[in-house]
Amino acid sequence: MGNTKKTNVPTKNAVKTSAAKDSGKKNETSFAFGKMNYILLIAGVVILLIGYICLAGGGSDNPEVFSDKLFDARRLVVAPILIVGGLVVEIFAIMIRPKDKKETETTEEIAE
Q: Measured between alpha carbons, how far is 71 from 91 in angstroms, rounded to an integer?
């Protein structure tokens, strides 16, 4: 008949078991993009830069003289194709889903 308060203080055994459970978990952070996504993003930027470099130039030094360099095939055909191709690669790099380690492991197991 006295004060009998129950406290929720964990015992030493409880602390050890919860620590053992936590140590088994891996603290892995999953990124939105995988390695392949970053490679494709860089490749798309390089293609875009090459396209814009091909598009540059063609002007005349003298504004009174017309230059036919403006209508070169490099500026009218190659540069726009490179720019659109770079944009397609960028969209593909963003949209492709990186493979998880679990998915690759199951795929390898099925292949064997």
A: 30
- Kindly give, in sequence order, each residue whose CB lies less than 8 Å from that of residue 45, ignoring residues fewer than 6 positions away: 86, 90
**Dihedral sign computed on CA atoms, order 38, 40, 42, 45:** negative
Each residue's pLDDT tens digit, 82-95: 999 999 999 999 99
How many whole angstroms separate alpha carbon 68 and alpha carbon 70? 5
Q: Considering the entire predicted model, what is its pTM?
A: 0.61
The DSSP secondary structure of the chain, one letter per residue, reads --------PPPHHHHHHHHHHHHHS--PPPPSS-HHHHHHHHHHHHHHHHHHHHHS----SSTTS--GGGG-HIIIIIHHHHHHHHHHHHHHHHHSPPPPHHHHHHHHHHH-
